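Quick illustration, no need to memorize.
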Amino acid sequence: MNEPVDPDNLAKLLVDLGCPEPKSAEMSQQLAKRSKQLAKERNQTQTEAMAYLINLMSQGWAAKDKTDAN
């Protein structure tokens, strides 16, 4: 099952998680596309796939912020 993704809300969430604002719209579109692919590959919902991808991205931004702070 594929749930609809609101790209504007997703872009805002990405910014809140550390995504550079100028890239958030493009990244939200890429995430929506990849979550559909991943859901199909893993036989899971798009919501589950999206949660997995967002978690990975937020970990990456947190690590980058930590590295930049040092």
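The longest helix spans residues 46-69.
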